[in-house]
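Cross-posting from the chemistry board since nobody answered there.

I work mostly on the small-molecule side, so proteins are not my area. We synthesized flavin-adenine dinucleotide and want a rough idea of how it might sit in this target. Sequence and SMILES are below. Is it possible to get a predicted 3D structure of the two together?
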Amino acid sequence: MNKYDVIIIGSGLGGLLCGYILSKEGFGVCILEKNNQPGGNLQTFSRNGHKFETGVHYIGALGPNQALSRYWRYFGLMNGLQFQQLDTEGFDRIAFGDEEFPMAQGYENFTSRLLQYFPGESQALDEYIRTIHEVVSAFPLYNLELPKDHREHHYTTRSAHEFLENLSRTEKPKSKIENRKSKVSLSSVLAGNNYLYGGSRLSPLHVASLISHSFISGAFRIIGGSDLVSRSLVNSITAMGGTVITKQNIIAIDRHRENFRVKSAGGEVFTSTKIISDIHPATTLSIMPAEMVRPAYRKRIASLQNTCSSFILYLSLKQGCFPYLNYNYYFHATSNPWDEPACPDARWPGMFLLSTGCHEPDQKFAETVTILTYMRYEEVARWTDTSVGRRGEAYLDFKKEKAEKLLKSAAQKFPGLPAAIEHMEISTPLTYSDYTGIPEGSLYGILKNYHEPLMTTVMPKTKIPDFYFTGQNTNLHGVLGVTIGSVVTCGEMIGLEYLLNKIKNG
Ligand SMILES: Cc1cc2nc3c(=O)[nH]c(=O)nc-3n(C[C@H](O)[C@H](O)[C@H](O)COP(=O)(O)OP(=O)(O)OC[C@H]3O[C@@H](n4cnc5c(N)ncnc54)[C@H](O)[C@@H]3O)c2cc1C
């Protein structure tokens, strides 16, 4: 009873994909999840009969023969699920004040659409795209190829912010708005969706490039919600003999002779010969005894900075009152998207991302709208020791005040939105830290820092024998990053070349 070859802690996308690979390879796998619902950031929730995404609003590289669709074919995800391609003429609309710029799909389209706004920037756009392609070719796993050299080092040590800032050649791009000079540069527009990687000036060039590449190549929404991905994976894993157990909050991991022992808050003990942790590495190491982890490693991992957290509104809408937007809308109050995670209180929210939920193909009206912005954990730190539903009046007032500010900002761009709202839910950094266990409710886990790429990268294979990490803190965050990360983690156990061949050959 309770004895497995591999225990995976956490059923986020990374944990489930590792569970799938290893079950398919004949390992006895058990995935232990603290929540009622598996999936981590793939979880959805319903209010008033409307389903909301919590951590996946769109996914990239899902077009035919693109990286994610090739990986997901192996995981059996391309048959059962339906996807809605976002507007090819602008999957993201980037707004600065009253100016809007489209990010189109396909590199030619991407360039020609932006040249309409920045006719003097053809050289800069060429350089942008050439660099993205160079970066992608330095990360062969993004083309399902085996990494052979260490060319990636060149890009992990460069700053995304500096690269984008130095791209623009002309100072005063042409404005689409008559008789006005645009204050917005091409550099700001290209950084306009940097919420996708946490908007930090410390982000390395490869993080921004790999993520932008995936969306420019092919941007899609999952029709019906991303919980369908976790459901499909759980069904496949159990059909292959694996086990997924929810409501198992793991509070201790130790070793007894050849076996790991994993203990849940409810007192259950599970044993295995190998462990993969899909939860934050600092949290993982904090539940292991001193003798299992070298102090220097524990100290380094505990000291790593996380990406900023978020404040999010989930709006259920009255029927037929607000259009379904087949794109994401990024609004910026100033022309500098890099200052927004640390936006001072008086100017908050400096930005928002507005996204409509996708419930059926070619939807006409939105049933749900999600509005996301940054929020630092310090804002809610005073309620850290309270629990969900019992945080007190002051917390409710805080949420209400912030929600009103964010909604007011969104209503300036979407005046019909407030009247269309039927019901509103709110999440803060505390909500995310409770539901996913990510410290400080951070959006994407550990912040990769181009000054210290090795220090801020968590390797999937650790010095603790048979102990591995997976998930967004290893390779890269986001659905594509985590998918590739799970292949790297399992590749460490069963051989990366062997696994890639299996994936490529179906
Ligand atoms: C607001 C938001 C929006 C996002 N939007 C997008 C997007 O549009 N596109 C995109 O590609 N990516 C997006 N992402 C990022 C993406 O969702 C994540 O990078 C990815 O899902 C992380 O997967 P993971 O496997 O690392 O683990 P997680 O999703 O973090 O899952 C970890 C799991 O471990 C469980 N757990 C934690 N502690 C314990 C414990 N002690 N015992 C047992 N279980 C435990 C948690 O409950 C959770 O289920 C978004 C993220 C956020 C927060």
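Reply from a structural biologist on the board:
Welcome over. Reading the output above for you: The two ends are 34 Å apart (CA to CA). Residues 393-413 form the longest helix (21 residues). Happy to explain the token format if needed.
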